[in-house]
Structures are given as structure tokens and as C-alpha cells.
From TrEMBL:
Keyword Hydrolase: yes
Family: Belongs to the sulfatase family.
Domain Sulfatase N-terminal positions: 1-317
Organism expressing this protein natively: Compostibacter hankyongensis
Sorted UniProt keywords: Calcium, Hydrolase, Metal-binding
CDD domains: GALNS_like
One Pfam family it belongs to: Sulfatase_C
Domain of life: Bacteria
Chain segments carrying region Disordered: 428-455
Protein name per the record: Sulfatase
Length: 455
């Protein structure tokens, strides 16, 4: 999912609409409660999930725009590239966002098939009201110079998305292509990375779900996403594949709260997208795999999207990438093994390379850093954004077991915890660096670059 928050599913407290197909995944599998995106923003988060690395390790930050001169390096190994080496068919449907030049597109990075958008669905020359942007509209922060939004199949643009009506068909088109991919490869091992464009603004829904929820357009979109999951599961079952397929459902970062009723919910966690507070990075995660993952189970252990690649390597026997990765095999958690706790800490980086927090067990040490806050600002409505304001925090310590909303700084009560966690902070700064303290880091790799003069 894109920009779906911790509180946006029935199984995590969502209200005003139903998500029965996703809830069934949870009932038949494992629901994680302490699962994180690696960063709270699009490109960085997606680079992480596909490579098993903190995105700043591989030169990724922020959200790449159209005509980006950088993208994923050909030296990085994606999940698709890893599995392709052992005979898997590999496909991506939906949003890519790791560079839109041909050399950065999925078919050059381990995928056999690609259908979708190369970046976010708001990166187009259309205003919040669905009308073409005019130069005068730049007062709203929108630019009329962005190119038309391309829908790509393989390496070629097959059409442009120019209206909200076009956007309303994305979930349906993605679902149809996913069903076709599964049916095409049902007699061989396959890996499908389905990266929905929704519920990233501008949100849009097809006629079959318009007006179906009690939460307006956002609820309608969530119901259509749930339908999409249901279609995929029906296809797996019809092909006799549902009992031998691992299905993982999660999101790239928290909700873009400034968009109000067109944004999701953090379920009470602090702040949202583009912050390293819990609302920006803690995500729903559901793993379903009959016979391996016990049905109806809940995992409260710390885990992250970067753990998916090494876990799939352990499951399939695929060789891990030859370079350093940051993910950890969480298969013991999926098997619900008693006392399994493979990940003991997680670093929260943002911006280009700023270490803003670290979590160890129930403790989250927040390091001094600036951020943009949604709090005390009235959100926008009906597709238009509200405001955010600059804010900052000093050193703070939160006990997430008692205070998942990060409201009560207990650093003065636990100096020994801070002292111990500072060792993790120092290790991260030495390895990955930290712009906030001027540390370059020893083990960062550059992204891919277009050569001068390349289109």
C-alpha cells in the first residue's frame, strides 16, 4: 500500500468501512504490531523493501521526481533479482519510484514483467481540484511544468494518466494485471510485488465502489483495495496455489495527515508520513502462509520491511546478496517459535542521512532533530492539503510498551537506558554516518546515476 496508516484496516481499528478480505488474511495468518517501514517516505521506503538495506546505505532519500538523474544502482540486488537466479518468474505491478529513466526501471533490476507508474500519482500537471495546473496555481505549491503521468508496461509508455477518472481505474487495472500474471505463471515459482498507488493522494475510486462506505471517498478507496486483495486470493485458490504461497500485506509509510479526510489514520500514533515518529513508520503487516504461519496469531516482536529479503532467501534457499544488507531473517517469528526475537534494534533515518532515533526492545531513543509537524494544524479537506509547521525535538526517551503515542519523555528516569543505547547510536554513525552530527559513515554505497547527456 501507499500512505496507508497503522489504523486503516479493520484488524487494526479502522472504522466506517470494511476490509473483509484483508481481515481474512489476518485470521488465516499472523498480524504484526511492531512492524516498521524503513523510512517514512516513498522512494527511500521502496528501495529498502526491495534490497533489504537501510535506504541511506544505498544512496536513497526522499521521493524521486520525474526525470530523476539518479535511481537504483545496477550493483544492488533486489528481491526479484535474487529469486530470478533460482528460477522464479518475477513481476511488479503498480508504483516503482526508484528512478524513471530506462536503466532504472524494473526490467533492468530483476523483474520479468512491469505494469504501473514510475513514481507517485500526484507527480502530474493536474491541480488538487482535478483541473490542469496553470502558472497562477503555483501559489498553491503546484507546478505546471511536470510531465504527463506515464503508465508503463515493460519499458514502454502505453498511455498517460491525465484525469481523476483515469486515476479511478488504477486499482482495477493493477488487479487485472496481477490476476493475469498469476495465471500465466501458476505452473512455476513466481514472485509478484504488487505496489498499489492508493491511498496516496489524489485518491480515486472506480464506479463499483463509489459511495459504498461511511467514510467518504477514502473509505470507498479502502474497500476497493480490499476487493483487489480478494481477487488475488481467489485467483491463487482457483489455481491451487493458496496453500503454497506466502502472502505479505503492508504499507510504505504512514498517512499524509495534512490531507485530512483524504488521508488515513495512525491509530493514535504520533505524527505521520515524512516524520520518524511512530505514525510515520509503524505499519500494519500481515503474513499468511498455511502450514507454516499459525492462523490467527499476533506477533509483537520488532521487525521491518528490510527483513523481507533475507526471510525470502531463507525460505527459498536463494543466495543472499554479496554485499552488506541490514535485514534479518524473521522466519522464526513466522513459525511462531517461542522466545524468537531475531531483531533487537532498528535505526530511524530520514532526510538525506540524518539519524533521528533508535529503537531497542520497548525503548525508543529520539535524537535531537528538526521535523515538520502536523500537530495543532487544521488538516485540509476533499483533496486539498492543510498546513504543517517546522518543529524540533531534543533528546527524549519513550517506553513504547506503555506509551506508543510518544507523549511522555522518561529520559530523566532511565539514564542507564540512554547510556546503553548510545552505543547503538555510535555504531550507526560509524557505519552509516549521520548528517546531524557531521559523520560521513564508512559503509555507504552510491545510487545509480545517469551519465552526462543521457536522456
Amino acid at each position: 500500500m501507499d500512505d496507508m496508516g497503522y489504523g486503516d484496516l479493520d484488524a487494526y481499528g479502522g472504522i466506517g468501512y470494511t476490509t473483509p478480505n484483508i481481515d481474512k488474511l489476518a485470521a488465516e495468518g499472523m498480524r504484526f504490531t511492531n512492524f516498521y517501514a524503513a523510512q517514512p517516505i516513498c522512494s527511500a521506503s521502496r528501495a529498502a523493501i526491495l534490497t533489504g538495506c537501510y535506504p541511506n546505505r544505498i544512496g536513497f532519500s526522499g521521493a524521486l521526481g520525474p526525470h530523476s538523474r539518479i535511481g537504483i544502482s545496477g550493483k544492488e540486488v533486489t528481491i526479484a533479482g535474487m529469486l530470478k537466479k533460482i528460477g522464479y518468474a518475477t513481476g511488479i505491478i503498480g508504483k516503482w519510484h526508484l528512478g524513471d529513466a530506462k536503466k532504472f526501471l524494473p526490467l533492468q533490476h530483476g523483474f520479468d514483467y512491469y505494469f504501473g507508474l514510475p513514481y507517485s500519482n500526484d507527480m502530474w500537471p493536474v491541480n488538487y481540484d482535478g483541473q490542469p495546473i496553470k502558472p497562477a496555481d503555483q501559489a498553491w505549491g503546484r507546478k505546471h511544468t511536470k510531465p504527463p503521468l506515464p503508465l508503463i508496461e515493460g519499458n514502454e509508455v502505453i498511455r498517460h494518466i491525465t484525469t481523476l477518472k483515469d486515476q479511478s481505474m488504477l486499482t482495477t487495472w493493477y488487479t487485472e494485471k496481477a490476476v493475469q500474471f498469476i495465471n500465466r505463471h501458476k505452473t512455476q515459482p513466481f514472485f509478484l510485488y504488487m505496489a498499489q498507488s492508493m491511498v496516496h493522494v489524489p485518491i480515486a475510486v472506480s464506479d463499483k465502489f463509489k459511495g459504498k462506505s461511511k467514510q467518504g471517498l477514502f473509505g470507498d478507496v479502502m474497500m476497493e483495495i480490499d476487493w483487489s486483495v480478494g481477487q488475488i486470493m481467489k485467483t491463487l485458490k482457483a489455481g491451487g496455489l493458496d496453500k503454497n504461497t506466502l502472502v505479505i500485506f503492508t504499507s510504505d509509510n504512514g498517512p499524509w495527515l495534512t490531507f485530512g479526510n483524504h488521508a488515513g489514520s495512525t491509530g493514535g500514533l504520533r505524527e505521520g508520513k515524512a516524520t520518524t515518529w511512530e505514525g510515520g513508520q509503524r505499519e500494519p503487516a500481515i503474513f499468511r502462509w498455511p502450514g507454516i504461519v499459525p492462523p490467527g496469531t499476533v506477533c509483537n516482536q520488532l521487525s521491518c520491511t528490510i527483513d523481507i529479503l533475507p526471510t525470502l532467501a531463507a525460505i527459498t534457499g536463494a543466495p543472499l546478496p554479496p554485499h552488506k544488507i541490514d535485514g534479518i531473517n524473521i522466519l522464526p517469528l513466522l513459525k511462531d517459535e517461542s522466545r524468537a526475537s531475531p531483531r533487537d534494534h532498528l535505526f530511524f533515518y530520514f532526510r538525506k542521512n540524518s539519524l533521528e532515533a533508535v529503537r531497542e526492545g520497548p525503548w525508543k531513543l529520539v535524537l535531537p532533530h528538526p521535523y515538520n509537524s502536523y500537530e495543532d494544524e487544521l488538516p485540509g479537506r476533499d483533496g486539498f492539503p492543510g498546513k504543517m509547521h517546522p518543529d524540533s525535538t531534543g533528546l527524549a526517551l519513550y517506553d513504547l510498551r506503555r506509551d506508543p503515542g510518544e507523549r511522555y519523555d522518561v529520559k530523566d528516569q532511565h539514564p542507564e537506558i540512554i547510556e546503553n543505547m548510545q552505543h547503538l547510536v555510535e555504531a550507526a554513525r560509524a557505519d552509516l554516518g549521520d548528517d546531524l552530527t557531521g559523520r560521513p559513515g564508512k559503509n555507504r554505497r552510491p545510487p545509480g546515476h545517469l551519465t552526462p547527456g543521457a536522456p
